[in-house]
Amino acid sequence: MVEEDRENKRSEVRGQMKKTRRTMHVGASPTTFVKAKYLRSNTTPAERLLWKFLSNKQMEGVKFRQQHPLNIYVIDFYSHELKLGIEVDGDYHNEKLQVFEDENRDLTLTSYGLSMIRYSNDDVLLNTTKVLEDIRARIIRLRELKGKI
Fold first, then answer.
1. What CATH number should be reported for the domain holding residue 72?
2. In what order do the strands lie in the sheet with 65-70?
3. For residue 43, what are the domain limits?
4. Which residue(s) pair with 89 in the sheet?
5. pLDDT tens-digit profile of 14-58?
6. Do the beta carbons of residue 140 and residue 115 sit within 8 Å?
7. pTM score of the predicted model
8. Within a domain: residue 97?
C-alpha cells in the first residue's frame, strides 16, 4: 500500500511538472528549443553583460532564464515567476519592418500575460546602471501588483 501511494504521488508530481512546462513554454516546438539553445551559445556582448546581472537570482532574488522558448518566440531573458520578458535589440530592430514585427510579437506575448521590456544593445552597454535600475523598478512594481491579486 505504501509503495502504491508513493507511485501515485510521483505520477501527480510528474503531471504537475508537465503542466508547468506547457504553461512556461506555451506550446514551443522542438525547433524553437533548438533555436534557443543555439542563441544561448551565441549571445551578443550586450546580452552577456546583462546576463551577468540577471543570472543566479542576483536581481532582487528573481530567477531569470536566458533565451527562453515561448510559443514560436525565444525571449532573451524571462522570469516565469513574474511573467517578465526582457529583450535586448540590435540596430536592425530600428528598421521599419522589424519595428512592425516586434510590435506584433510584443502584442502576442502580452496576450499570454507577459510584461515586456525592450532595450537597445547601446542602452545595455552604455547605460548599464540605468537599465538595471529600470529592471529593478519593474520587478518591484510587478511584485506589488501580484500581491494585490
1. 3.40.960.10
2. 65-70, 73-79, 84-89, 115-120
3. 27-148
4. 120
5. 443 344 445 678 788 889 899 999 999 999 999 999 999 999 999
6. no
7. 0.79
8. yes
The number of domains in the chain is 1
Q: Does residue 10 belong to any structural domain of this protein? A: no
Q: Report the candidate in 47, 45, 46, 54 with the shortest Cα–Cα distance to residue 74.
A: 47
CA distance linking residue 55 with residue 128, whole number of Å? 15
| Axis crossing angle, helix 128-148 with helix 45-54, rounded to the nearest 10 | 50
Asked if 93 contacts 99 with a C-beta cutoff of 8 angstroms, the reply is yes
Kindly report, residue by residue over 38-48, the tens digit of the pLDDT.
999 999 999 99
Alpha carbon of 77 to those of 8, 51, 65, 93: distances in Å? 35, 8, 5, 17
For residue 93, tell me if it sits in a domain: yes
**Is position 91 within any domain?**
yes
Q: Which of 118, 147, 143, 139 is nearest to 47 (CA)?
A: 118
User: CA end-to-end span of the chain, whole Å?
Assistant: 41
